[in-house]
Design goal:
By secondary structure, this protein is mainly beta. The protein has a single domain, classed as Porin (Beta Barrel), CATH 2.40.160. It has one helix and nine strands. An eight-stranded antiparallel β-barrel has the order 1-2-3-4-6-7-8-9. Strand 6 and strand 7 form a beta hairpin. The two termini are 27 Å apart. The N terminus is likely disordered.
């Protein structure tokens, strides 16, 4: 997550540098997300709780009007840990399933000001890249846990994301709450994947230029 946030910041600052003559916003968001995923073998991750970070660079073609064109990056991660008994040795094995989502997207929105407050609905279209991993955890005597990946599968597909932001803006900054829902279709393996949805609610901080 830390490395991803650095990448998001670098990309957005680069975009801002190339748009010095245009009005734009830069948003950073963080919040709670919940996954829904099809498949009989994916029940451990269905309805799993996770976290999402996002960053969006938004052009304002005409600041006096409400049209907004955004370029965003979102990432989230979900993990379920469980224990199995080895049928041959009888020992208990600590295993996990994990799904990481990374979505670059383009969005179109409309900014509705209400005094210093605002409402901003938008619709994003992007590429959802998902990596599904299965592995096990080694427990060392010094209380250090090490995760080993047994196998991972990466798939990508088109994603749609309606989003709503409600916030407060003052001079060159703003803050508020946001909610969105992602839909895509990712089939990882037999009984794992299909329709994938992600509900998200969180807070954001905005810099306006």
């Amino acid at each position: 997550m830390r490395r991803l946030s650095v990448v998001c910041s670098a990309l957005l600052l680069g975009a801002a540098a190339t748009s010095a003559n245009a009005a734009f916003d830069v948003d950073f968001g963080l919040g709670y997300s919940r996954l829904s995923i099809d498949g009989n073998n994916a029940k451990d991750l269905d309805n799993a709780d996770g976290a999402q970070i996002n960053a969006t660079f938004t052009l304002k073609p005409s600041p006096a009007q409400g049209l907004r064109i955004g370029f965003g990056l979102e990432a989230s991660s979900y993990r379920n840990d469980f224990h199995q008994t080895d049928p041959f040795t009888g020992f208990e094995i600590h295993r996990y399933h994990e799904l990481d989502l990374f979505i670059p997207e383009v969005s179109v929105g409309y900014h509705i000001p209400i005094d210093h407050f605002f409402i901003e609905p938008s619709l994003g279209v992007g590429l959802a890249v998902g990596t599904y991993s299965v592995g096990h955890v080694h427990h060392h005597h010094d209380d250090f846990d090490e995760s080993d990946v047994d196998r991972d599968i990466t798939r990508a597909n088109v994603a749609l994301r309606p989003k709503l932001q409600i916030g407060y803006a003052r001079d060159h900054w703003g803050a508020g709450v946001e909610a969105s829902y992602l839909w895509t279709h990712l089939h990882f393996d037999d009984g794992i994947g299909g329709d994938v949805g992600e509900a998200y609610v969180g807070g954001f901080f905005r810099l306006s230029f």
